């Protein structure tokens, strides 16, 4: 992603991403095409991927002006889940959730603000 559980691993009850999902519907989610499941060792489902150049792919739905990853299920800011959580791309795995006390991520708050959600610094 030029940017969520959705992106981090934590207990479900403490996972604020599950009531957010803003970054999955705000940023382009790009990654190396080697992560796609038509490549040896790849896991990201080909059906949900768009090739953007010789070596890079993006999650379908995140490459245009209006962005929403096609793997995102539910309603942003209410209740969401990732349909391919266990095989999501590295971009998603590496995106730090701003609610985690061990990290700070302005990009998380920027996506939340775009959906009228409170940034975490204000909590
Ligand atoms: S914007 Fe932040 S809180 Fe919301 S889903 Fe993404 S990482 Fe989680
Ligand atoms: S693959 Fe999953 S975690 Fe990644 S952007 Fe799409 S819905 Fe979000």
Description:
With 123 residues, the protein is α+β, with helices and mostly antiparallel strands. It has one domain (12-116). It contains two helices and five strands. The chain has helices at residues 90-93, 106-114; strands spanning 30-32, 49-51, 56-59, 72-75, 79-82. The strands form two sheets. It has a three-stranded antiparallel sheet, with no helix packed on it. The two termini are 25 Å apart. The mean pLDDT is 90. Bound molecules: iron/sulfur cluster (2 copies).
For the secondary structure, the number of strands is 5
Radius of gyration: 14 Å
Q: What portion of residues belong to β-strands?
A: 5-15%
Order of strands across the widest beta sheet?
1-3-2
Task: Give the overall shape.
Answer: globular
Treating each run of at least 4 consecutive H or I residues as one helix, how many helices? 2
Keywords:
binds iron/sulfur cluster, single chain, 123 residues, two-stranded antiparallel ribbon, 2 helices, three-stranded antiparallel β-sheet, alpha+beta
